[in-house]
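Team,

Forwarding the record for the chain on the shared tracking sheet. I've put the sequence and predicted structure together so nobody has to dig through attachments.
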Amino acid sequence: MPIYHDDNFGTWNNMDDPEMVSFYHKCQRTNVTKRCQGCEKIVNIQPHYAYCNTCADKIERGMEF
């Protein structure tokens, strides 16, 4: 099974499901390139997101920027 990874959700699971693969590709088509407000890296994320997946995970664990 191929590995799917992006700046929105990190590594995708259950990618043997055609509906999940379709959703992944839909997300990729609607991503925009912008600077993450946490790490300040240029990432491809959804227009309404401010943080990449790595930074969002850190925020969920209590880290503040």
